[in-house]
Structures are given as structure tokens and as C-alpha cells.
Amino acid sequence: DTLTIHENIALALTINKTNKNEIDGKVNSVAKELGIEEILTKYPYEVSGGQKQRVASARAIITSPSLILADEPTGALDTKTSIQIMDLIKDIAKDKLVIMVTHNPELAKEYADRIVEFRDGNVISDTNPLEEEKSNNSYSLKKTSMSFFTALKLSGMNIRTKKWRTFLTAFASSIGI
After folding, report:
1. How many CA atoms lie within 13 A of 90 on its CB side?
2. Taking the complete model, does pTM exceed 0.85, yes or no?
3. What does DSSP say about strands 116-119 and 97-101: parallel, antiparallel, or unpaired?
4. CA separation (Å) from 101 to 9, 54, 90?
5. How much is the pLDDT for 4?
6. Burial of 138 (0-12, 13-18, 19+ CB in 10 A)
7. SS3 per-residue string spanning the chain
């Protein structure tokens, strides 16, 4: 809540150590693609639930991951906004693997290419089961880290915006010591 929408989206690039000159261009490009360019200077508490979902989507796709996990992406949204978010996810899924978790079977049937249903940790049904293949492809995770200065800056902003909580924590710690 202490970061603007622009800073929230840029955080994913900052953690990936993207060049600062590239960050603004990428953020503006993704914001335009998702229709949120007019809210980049606002804070999360100043925007609607649908806009927050778009910001979350922007953070998810800005680093160009090969896999996106979406946990109940339409859970707290009205029907109209849910359709917009699902259309956005379907558009993203053209280029990337999107795994979505939902408790809404109608939504899954309308938008998913494959539905795997689980109950009590077991697979109940699979609309498109894959045959096991031997693959020699190895996948390695990309190591990400945040610079010390960035971590310090974000911590300082958090302390500055939550002064009362910081004071109470310091006070309680001094009593405990």
C-alpha cells in the first residue's frame, strides 16, 4: 500500500535487477496493454478491485515468465470485471502457460483448455490427460535477488508509512528486553 501502482509493477523488475532505464518503458508498455496507464500515479487503496487485479496481472507478466499461476483471479470481482480479467488471462495464455485455480466450474469450462479436478488431494478427473513422455529438457530456475539499497529503501518506506505500528513494536521490544 505504500507504493504507487507504477512502483508496484516496477518492483518485479527491480528484484530481477533490470536496468533502471528500461523499467519505465516496460511498465508503461504493460500498463497500456492492460488498460491501467491512467492509474499509474495512484496508490492501491485509490483504485477498484478490477484495477487491482490488472495491476497484479501486470506484475505477473512484466518479467515475461514462462509460467503464470493464478489463484482465484476473479474471486472478489463482479461478473463484468470477472469476464474482463478472464479475457485478459486467456489473451496471456496464448503465449504462456497459465495455471489457474478456481472453485467456479462454469468459469473453468468457458475459458480453460484443460480442466483437472482435485478432491482431497487426489485427481478426480482430467479433460485432457497427457501421456508420459521422456524428456531430456532440463529447466533451471533463474536466480533473483534484491539489492541491499532497494531492500533498505522499501523497509524505510514501510516504517515511515506505519509509524504507529513501528512505535508500538519498538516500545514492546524495549519492555521485553
Report:
1. 14
2. no
3. unpaired
4. 23, 17, 14
5. 93
6. exposed
7. CCCCHHHHHHHHHHHCCCCHHHHHHHHHHHHHHHCCHHHCCCCHHHCCHHHHHHHHHHHHHCCCCCEEEEECCCCCCCHHHHHHHHHHHHHHCCCCEEEEECCCHHHHHHHCCCCEEEECCEEEEECCCCCCCCCCCCCCCCCCCCCHHHHHHHHHHHHHHCHHHHHHHHHHHHHHC
Number of Cβ within a 10 Å radius of residue 177: 5
The residues, any chain, with a CB within 8 Å of residue 11's CB and separated by 6 or more, are 3, 59
Alpha-carbon dihedral angle through residues 79, 47, 44, 13, given to the nearest 10 degrees = 80
Give 139-157 pLDDT, tens digit per residue.
Answer: 666 777 778 888 888 888 8
pLDDT at 43 over 90: yes
Angle at 67 between CA 64 and CA 72, to 5 degrees: 110
Contact status, residue 92 vs residue 67, Cβ threshold 8 Å: no
Residue pair 11/59 in contact (Cβ under 8 Å)? The answer is yes
| pLDDT number for residue 132 | 67
pLDDT at 112: 87
